[in-house]
Write a structure and sequence with these properties.
The protein has 148 residues and is α+β, with helices and mostly antiparallel strands. It is built from three helices and eight strands.
């Protein structure tokens, strides 16, 4: 779920709070989490992550976004991963076929090689992500919305 949190933070910034539900199934830690991220702007943002799917369930990542005049859906398990809908039609958007995690690692290695300080994802971004995750844990434990 840390990657979900990173993605939400990257797109929308740090939320004012979170309301999360979750449970443990296999590890003794929270294995399934569903979070509503609370923004003063009124943006409705939620994410769900799980390690609880049955054996054989393939990894997938998907999201949907509603814009002012269009909606978009990304699904890593489809051949056409990104589709935009609007004006009663849909359009497949061609995306890079590389793995995002591999791209992150490649960028980090390049920063180490060149001695360049990372500017895409910084240590401060990592701290913010951990703060959000800790607020999610506290929300699951208390059943209440928690400020970040």
């Amino acid at each position: 779920h840390v990657h979900d949190v990173d993605f939400v933070y990257y797109l929308f910034g740090k939320p004012q709070g979170v309301y999360s539900r979750g449970y443990s199934k296999t590890t003794g830690e929270i294995d399934h989490v569903q979070t509503q991220y609370l923004y003063d702007s009124g943006a409705l943002v939620s994410a769900e992550g799980s390690w609880c799917m049955a054996d054989g369930w393939p990894f997938s990542m998907r999201y949907s976004v509603n814009f002012e005049r269009a909606s978009a859906e990304f699904d890593s398990s489809r051949a056409d991963t990104l589709i935009v809908y609007g004006d009663n039609k849909s359009e497949v958007i061609t995306t890079d076929k590389h793995d995002g995690y591999a791209g992150e690692m490649s960028y980090f290695i390049e920063c180490v090689k060149t001695g360049q300080k990372p500017h895409r994802v910084t240590a401060d971004d990592a701290v913010a992500g951990l703060q959000i995750i800790e607020a999610e844990r506290k929300s699951i434990e208390t059943g209440l919305a928690v400020a970040v």
